[in-house]
Amino acid sequence: MAAEDHIPHYEIRVRGQLPSRWAAWFDGLNVTAEADGTTAIRGPVTDQAALHGLLGRVRDIGLPLVSLTELPLDPPTEPTRLPDLEEN
């Protein structure tokens, strides 16, 4: 696995809708206006300092924070099979 595979991905959800052009303001993360009136900001965040920086930017634009979720890493492309256990 490459080092970037271990970078956690987060979803920051705010109340209100931002157009996707705000991605640059949020360090290139995906900015998606959702049908429920919220905006989801998703992508890799290198460390806690970067995460706090992103949350500070949410605060700076004045949109209420709805949720912060660490997203699961992508599942493996091939299912892993555990070896059969033999009964003794």
- Could you name the CATH topology? Alpha-Beta Plaits
Rg over alpha carbons: 18 Å
The count of strands amounts to 4
| Main sheet characteristics | 4 strands, antiparallel
Judging by the overall fold, what is the CATH architecture? Answer: 2-Layer Sandwich
Overall pLDDT confidence:
86
Number of helices: 1
Strand content: 25-35%
Query: Looking at the structure, what is the overall shape?
Result: globular
Helix content: 10-25%
Low-confidence stretches: none
Write structural notes for this entry.
Helices cover about 15% and strands about 30% of the residues. With about 90 residues, the protein is α+β, with helices and mostly antiparallel strands. It has one domain (about 5-70): 2-Layer Sandwich (Alpha-Beta Plaits), CATH 3.30.70. The protein has a four-stranded antiparallel sheet with strand order 2-3-1-4, with helices on one face. The chain is globular, with a radius of gyration of 18 Å. The model has no long low-confidence stretch (mean pLDDT about 85).
